[in-house]
Amino acid sequence: MDKIIKEYSNGEVVIIWKPDLCIHAAFCWKELPEVFDPKKRPWVNPKGATTERIIEQIKRCPSGALSYRMENEKQPEKKQENITEVEVIKGGPLMIRGQLKITDTNEKIITKNGLTAFCRCGASKNKPFCDGSHQTVDFDE
Fold it and tell me: Which of 5, 95, 113, 136 would disulfide-bridge 87, Cβ 3.0–4.6 Å?
């Protein structure tokens, strides 16, 4: 069965949305509601902000559900980085950007590239990854 992939373009950038990957961290619609509004259909308005601002917001997506490519490219842009970045989100996950090799409690190895959200609140049902549960357990650290 094929996974759903939606694309929205403003003529410069194509916003790619993979709903099966979304963990509902809500960074997109809380930080750029002019483009991302879950109460509207379609929920993505690619003309609601500048291309640069849209790209900046997409790069903050912790699950990879949002990505982008420039209109004249065939594949989503992949950023090569040698530095691993870590950001603690107040009331939310630990965000790590970079190439990761994770060994889970069953010694299964998981590789991640890009932005990955790790649970800090302890309530995630998808540990060690964030599933947005911090929003329902009043986590504010």
Answer: 95
Domains and CATH numbers, the chain: 6-70 (3.30.70.20), 85-135 (no CATH)
pLDDT tens digits, 18-74: 998 888 888 899 999 999 999 999 999 999 999 999 999 999 888 889 999 999 876
Note the pTM of the prediction, 2 decimals: 0.65
How far apart are the two ends of the chain, measured CA to CA in Å? 40
Strands 13-17 and 6-9: antiparallel
Supply 68's token pair: 């982008």
How many CB atoms sit inside 10 A of residue 41's CB? 7
CA distance readout (Å), 134 to 22, 66, 130: 15, 20, 8
In contact, 132 and 23? CB cutoff 8 Å: yes
